[in-house]
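Why should sequence recovery work at all? Because a backbone constrains its sequence more than one might expect. Tight turns favour small or flexible residues, buried strands favour hydrophobic ones, and helices have their own preferences. The token representation captures these environments compactly. In the example below, the structure is given first.
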């Protein structure tokens, strides 16, 4: 009975993740178009406000909305690229969900003018999580040499620790100088890895596979000759027999 209840749920999740993976390329294009579109709208609103000489509450709300959606699109593009390259759908989808929720909360706060300590703490939490996930995903995308890949793991740990410190400071309303000194230290380490990873990507040793093609022609003597006149004796090898002899 338990298997019958669980099977449809598992199948739906698997189908959803498979669909999401197949649609990643198109999703990245959609996020990019959204980013360009709302960025253009931001510029148009700014130009219009300059020309008419007014910059009222409506213009501020429109600019805040377009900037929020543009930022969420950038974070979502990072998550989509991570899913496509690293094949980890759950983490990438979590990042996209965080970006969407944070954008919705900020837009609601801008237009409905919501207030409340819990609301703003929740909004800041989702903003921090979405930016942290997008940042970490971007740093693990490059293929580094094996001896340098620890920097990517360290950067993810540093970003995670920094985001937890920020969220903890927001909810607990920490007022401790030592705490913020430690937060500053972690921030510096994160910035360091953010700069180091792209440099290591440029330093990565490329490995090339050289493919050589040898063209032989059979002569009357039963041997083979190449274009340079060198002679060869060719023996056919049966892969199954060869593997069996190696085993023995």
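From this structural description, the recovered sequence reads:
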């Amino acid at each position: 009975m338990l298997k019958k209840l669980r099977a449809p749920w598992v199948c739906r999740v698997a189908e959803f993740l498979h669909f999401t993976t197949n649609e990643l390329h198109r999703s990245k294009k959609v996020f990019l178009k959204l980013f360009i579109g709302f960025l253009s709208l931001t510029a148009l609103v700014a130009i219009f406000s300059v020309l008419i000489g007014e910059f009222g509450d409506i213009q501020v709300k429109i600019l805040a909305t377009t900037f929020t959606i543009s930022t969420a699109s950038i974070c979502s593009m990072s998550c989509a690229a991570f899913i496509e390259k690293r094949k980890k759908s759950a983490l990438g989808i979590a990042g996209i969900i965080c970006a969407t929720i944070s954008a919705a909360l900020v837009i609601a706060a801008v237009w409905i003018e919501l207030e409340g300590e819990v609301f703003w703490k929740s909004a800041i939490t989702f903003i921090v999580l979405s930016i942290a996930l997008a940042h970490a995903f971007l740093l693990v995308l490059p293929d580094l040499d094996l001896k340098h890949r620890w920097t990517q793991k360290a950067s993810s740990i540093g970003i995670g620790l920094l985001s937890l410190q920020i969220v903890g400071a927001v909810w607990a309303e920490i007022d401790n100088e030592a705490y913020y000194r430690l937060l500053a230290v972690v921030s510096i380490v994160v910035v360091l890895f953010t700069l180091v990873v792209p440099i290591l990507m440029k330093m990565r040793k490329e490995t090339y596979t050289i493919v050589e093609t040898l063209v032989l022609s059979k002569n009357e003597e039963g041997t083979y000759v190449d274009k340079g006149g060198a002679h060869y004796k060719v023996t056919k090898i049966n892969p199954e027999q060869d593997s069996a002899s190696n085993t023995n």
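A few observations help interpret the result. Residues 26 and 80 are 10 Å apart (CA to CA).
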